[in-house]
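Input.
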Amino acid sequence: MDHAPPPTRCWQRGLTLIELMVAIVVLAILVSVGPASFASILQTSRLKSAQNDLVTLLQLARSTAVSRNQRVTLCRSGNGANCAGQQRQGEQAWQGALAFVDLDQNRQVGANETVFYVANFTSPVFIIWNRGDSLVYQPDGSALGGSNGTFTISTAGSPYSRLVVVSLLGRIRTATVGG
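Output.
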């Protein structure tokens, strides 16, 4: 018996010019589209995160008003210690917010009132409450005001905005607009 080694296959080691050109074209497309889609994903993530933080804060303020049977005010704050303004229509972006039991019902943190939550909106989002600088929850969980109010959350350069709508009953719903 003759034990001859099996024939070995000859494999190509490299790329043809056409394969190399196709690979370069695909790579160029991915490099040009990748950063734009990443920026879009980042903006969407920032909007969703700010919306979730705001909804959590509103739910906390409402549940505190119901559980303590007292008015709870959520106000716009720039320094994390005091409320920033008394406007009744939304023009200023909220950089932060304070939640406190408003004993004297003046929508400002007084000497006998303790802030139970401080929120800082540090990501590059703009949050505007169309009802001004504060939101008040009544002891029954309803929101003080003449109609529904809307927080609009947006970022620079994005066609999309997120909304947090607070009904007079104090219920919260969310939506996305733009495109």
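The chain is about 30% helix and 25% strand.
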